[in-house]
Amino acid sequence: MLFTIFIYLYAATLVIGSLVPLQKAKRQFKLPNNHLYNEEIFHIPSKVSQKVIKRTGTTVHVNGKEKLLDEPVLYVANHQGLFDILAFLGHLGKPVGFVAKKEINKLPIIRKWMELLYCVFIDRNDRRQSMKAINQGIENLKAGHSLVIFPEGTRSRGSILNEFKSGSLRLATKANVPIIPVSIDGTYKMLEEGNGRIQASEIKMTINDPIYPDDYKDLKSGELASLIQRTIEKSLGLEQEESMKVEMIEIS
């Protein structure tokens, strides 16, 4: 437990230390045609995320970076744990915002950085507010700012995926941007597996082939969600595990 407290204190110190660059970033954010977004505004959240993950003793391996695009995209990922967001911020290598639950918007300093990253906050208990947030996310994508969505809606707290909700994919289909499925494995071991105790892990992120608008234009929303979920399950090795289980049952 002392290690967990230390990590939280360390993270809080880094966040408080970002106040000065936050003020500079806010000024840059207000400028027209701001070209410092990629370099300066995203730099601090990325470095803070890297430092926190490293301090836990966790290593991060990213495969498929060559599949990243130099254009706005919707990253669709499974959601194992709280550290998924830090893994994306620190190790994807591209500026991203998030579709996040409204509770995160209550965190001082952090919420301001998230606003600068063009994050949107959803209240799942308020349908009207949720639609407004999704529409804002669509506009952010059209304006050139990539977003990350976790379509399971909540943390799986393990390697098995919950069903992907198709409604969140309207972000891509309405903005007409590519979708990049990303699998994350190992983050749940950092916090959720230990019932709130932080521990070291090994995170593996796999960036899969982009799905372009021409590829998904004829798919129904449910079909698209299933396609992305199968892609992520395959990169996690879950399809192979399920196939082996079926074979074992047939043999027995």
UniProtKB/TrEMBL annotation:
Q: Does the keyword Transferase apply?
A: yes
- Principal EC category: transferase
InterPro entries for this protein? AGP_acyltrans, Plipid/glycerol_acylTrfase
Q: Which organism is it from?
A: Ornithinibacillus caprae
What name does the UniProt record give this protein?
1-acyl-sn-glycerol-3-phosphate acyltransferase
Domain Phospholipid/glycerol acyltransferase as annotated: residue spans: 73-187
Q: Which GO terms describe its biological process?
A: phosphatidic acid biosynthetic process
GO molecular function: any one?
1-acylglycerol-3-phosphate O-acyltransferase activity
First and last residue of the signal peptide? none
Instruction: State the UniProt keywords alphabetically.
Output: Acyltransferase, Lipid biosynthesis, Lipid metabolism, Membrane, Phospholipid biosynthesis, Phospholipid metabolism, Transferase, Transmembrane, Transmembrane helix
